[in-house]
Design goal:
The chain is α+β, with helices and mostly antiparallel strands and 435 residues long. Helix content is 66%, strand content 12%. It has a four-stranded antiparallel β-sheet, with no helix packed on it. The chain has a two-stranded parallel sheet with strand order 1-4. The N terminus is likely disordered.
Length: 435
């Protein structure tokens, strides 16, 4: 739209009132359009993309696991009912005059309630809770890494669409210019000053421009649809994409979501090493067992009666044949692997940053040249237009010069967008805030 407005001021023969009316109409159209920014797409993807829901789910899973581990501090209560029949039992077959030895019953019935209470676990439960917590942080950070990669895809689609949008504006500007020249040439043809074939050249070029506009519109619609799906932000084909306003994050140190993931993975292994060590610590628990049935603890009591037992249990794995040490060594080696991955990741980032910086410098130099080329091509096409009007130059020559100016403007707009994209890419590589 900004190119059409620019073109209105270029039309010298247009009346001031007409220009004002057109500007009012165009401004009304601009404000009625939906505007979309890169920040809107990022913010929407962070909240609405299916991956975003996984963070809350991982937090819920972690809380459930933590609650289960905390419940180990509470007493456990078990109820058991048992009825058995034995084909034989222990019998005392010694015959003593005047003494009758009791016999064990072959039928046994019992109902028992058993209570166990952990008194000391050597810090095992707290260590396990720390492992669960760190594991949850690792899973959540993996989601952050995936969302960050999603933002990079959104950036690519956004800038592709922005290029198509800017190219559309330049083609529309060229189309409007040819329309004006065609009006002028029509009058010249009617007066017999110019051959009708010159007018046909302008008409053919208009048709070619309209074809290009159709192709660009179709491509833009496809890209916008993909952008809408990834960002989960409502975008229609009439939406206007705004060039990103980049924040001041160039001095931000490099710290990507992947770096936090490496840290969380390292902390998880530290917690796992601590848990492995805690498994060797002694544990102390109290228990109570109460029952009703026959026989009880007295196997020779053949009456149904109540009985109970209380006690404490101390357990300590004194020697495990160095299994714990080997498990700790395995976890330590895994930490070294994570550190190796981080170093390799940093080296790739340095390469990417260097490429982005060189690309930015190249674009800045090319943009300077593009502006000079546009200034020259604009003068050339203006002279060609006057010469065509006077009949000293053909319409084909004029169109060649006009297309050269058009291509120069497309090159400038494309490189300006690519420069913004390279700056966005640099911030994304560093993990710095974009806006």
């Amino acid at each position: 739209m900004k190119y059409i407005i620019r073109h209105i001021f270029k039309v010298r023969k247009a009346g001031r009132i007409t220009a004002i009316v057109l500007l009012i109409a165009l401004n009304t159209t601009v404000f009625s359009q939906n505007t979309v920014s890169l920040k809107m797409c990022h913010d929407s993807a962070e909240v609405k993309f299916p991956l975003a829901d996984q963070k809350a789910k991982f937090e819920q899973i972690n809380q459930l696991k933590q609650d289960n581990l905390t419940s180990n501090y509470l007493p456990t209560l078990n109820f058991k009912v048992k009825a058995t029949y034995q084909s034989e039992v222990v019998e005392i077959k010694i015959s003593v005059p005047g003494m009758d030895f009791p016999t064990m019953p072959k039928e046994q019935y019992s109902a028992n309630i058993e209570i166990n209470q952990l008194i000391y676990d050597g810090g095992n439960i707290k260590a396990a809770q720390k492992v669960n917590e760190q594991n949850s942080l690792v899973n959540i950070q993996k989601v952050e890494v995936d969302i960050y990669g999603l933002k990079e895809q959104i950036n690519q689609l956004y800038f592709n669409c922005l290029l198509l949008q800017e190219n559309t504006g330049i083609l529309q500007l060229t189309h409007e210019t040819i329309i004006e020249k065609k009006k002028m040439m029509t009058a010249a043809v009617n007066q017999g000053m110019v051959l009708e074939s010159e007018l046909d050249n302008l008409s053919a070029e208009m048709l070619r421009l309209e074809q290009q506009l159709i192709e660009i519109k179709s491509a833009k619609t496809q890209v916008l649809k993909a952008l809408e799906i990834l960002s989960c932000f409502p975008i229609d084909e009439n939406s206007e994409l705004l060039p990103p306003q980049i924040g001041n994050g160039n001095n931000t140190p490099i710290f990507r979501p992947e770096h936090q993931l490496f840290l969380n993975q390292s902390h998880l292994l530290d917690a796992s090493i601590n848990l492995t060590q805690k498994k060797r610590m002694p544990t102390l628990a109290a228990f109570a067992n109460a029952g009703y049935g026959k026989p009880g603890y007295d196997f020779f009591n053949n009456t149904i009666h109540g009985y109970y037992m209380v006690g404490a249990q101390f357990q300590w794995n004194i020697w495990d044949w160095k299994q714990t040490n080997r498990e700790k060594q395995q976890l330590s080696v895994q930490k070294l692997l994570i550190e190796d991955n981080r170093k390799a990741f940093d080296k790739n980032l340095i390469i990417s940053l260097s490429e982005a910086e060189l690309r930015k410098q190249k674009l800045e130099r090319l943009i300077v040249k593009d502006k000079d080329i546009i200034e020259l091509q604009s003068r050339i096409s203006n002279r060609s237009a006057e010469q065509m009007k006077n009949g000293t130059k053909t319409s084909a020559d004029y169109l060649r010069d006009l297309n050269a100016e058009k291509q120069a403007r497309i090159n400038l707009e494309s490189r300006q967008i690519q420069l913004i994209q390279s700056q966005i890419d640099e911030l994304m590589i560093k993990g710095a805030p974009l806006f």
